[in-house]
Specification:
Distance between the termini: 125 Å
Largest sheet: none
Oligomer: single chain
Number of helices: 8
Strand content: under 5%
Structural class: mainly alpha
Shape: elongated
Radius of gyration: 48 Å
Helix content: 40-55%
Length: 222
């Protein structure tokens, strides 16, 4: 009995795999393009967009009374705004201007009475009557200036009624100057009427501001 040598190589493999189906070869991978992909969206700049500027809120020229009388908020610890301090300083300047006017009246009293157009109603035209009239004018003027000085202190402390009263006096003063200029042709001089008129206008602008109003009404409940 002769031995049979074992088969090597493909013959041995073919014999063992004759009863089984051969596995399919893997499909080739799709070819990829080496060109870079381009995006259809437009390119955007990396620089940040400029921030949109917000216009400051301006106060309207006319506001209804209901909005002006609305409580501004209870804040007793509110700091005194610059508008209130400016109003206080302007009232002091108005008092100082009044003192200068009274001094000028006293210095030029005799020359004023020598004018034919000046008349002392209710006073004797004698030298004693002239002196009495001068003291009366100075006393009335000093009383008005003392009241104005007291109002300035009350405004500085933040009292709303004093702020309103000072503004009412300023409106009356401005209206009086306008009527005198319109009806009587009175000239507005730099060293006279113009000084008091400019102070009254600046005083109205300062004390009618929102901050000055809120400070004067800081103790009002909502």
């Amino acid at each position: 009995m002769t031995g049979r040598a074992p088969l090597d190589g493909p013959e041995a493999d073919g014999g063992s795999a004759s009863g089984s189906a051969s596995a399919p070869a893997p499909a080739p991978a799709p070819a990829t393009s080496s060109a870079p992909a381009t995006s259809s969206a437009p390119a955007t700049s990396s620089a940040p967009a400029p921030a949109e500027e917000v216009a400051p809120r301006k106060r309207p020229a006319y506001e209804p009374a209901a909005r002006l009388l609305r409580p501004t908020g209870y804040d007793p610890d509110m700091r005194r705004p610059m508008a209130t301090t400016a109003g206080f300083a302007l009232v002091l300047l108005r008092v100082l201007a009044g003192v200068i006017v009274l001094v000028g009246i006293a210095a030029g009293w005799d020359a004023m009475l020598d004018d034919p157009d000046s008349v002392l109603d209710g006073f004797d035209p004698s030298p004693e009557g002239r002196q009495l009239a001068l003291w009366f004018v100075l006393a009335v003027g000093a009383a008005v200036l003392l009241v104005d000085l007291a109002l300035a202190i009350f405004v500085f402390r933040g009292l709303n009624w004093a702020r309103i009263l000072v503004m009412v006096v300023s409106v009356i003063s401005i209206s009086t100057v306008f009527v005198a200029w319109w009806a009587q042709g009175q000239e507005i001089e730099i060293y006279g009427t113009f000084l008091s008129l400019s102070l009254d206008i600046l005083l109205l602008l300062a004390l009618s501001s929102r901050r000055a109003s809120a400070y004067a009404r800081r103790n009002e409940a909502r």
